[in-house]
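User: Design a sequence. Structure:
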């Protein structure tokens, strides 16, 4: 399992965070997604064999948000 933090722009409130979480948690291989609209980030725990970072980024973009940066996070 990998755990990474993605920076997400345009998160304006709780409903935006829920939209991002739902989009990611529907991906096969994503164990959990926790979005903070205050920090403009989403922490994703995922199985790198089942889902790629590109798929994670695409899911966030499809939900209507911009992924601006990717930062590794400690477990």
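Assistant: Done.
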């Amino acid at each position: 399992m990998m755990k990474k933090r993605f920076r997400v722009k345009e998160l304006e409130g709780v409903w935006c965070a829920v939209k991002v979480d739902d989009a990611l948690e529907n991906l096969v291989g994503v164990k959990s997604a926790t979005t903070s609209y205050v920090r403009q980030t989403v922490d994703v725990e995922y199985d790198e064999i089942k889902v790629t970072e590109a798929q994670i980024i695409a899911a966030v973009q499809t939900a209507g948000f911009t992924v601006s940066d990717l930062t590794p996070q400690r477990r």
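The chain has one domain: 2-72. Residues 2-72 form a domain with the Alpha-Beta Plaits fold (CATH 3.30.70.100).
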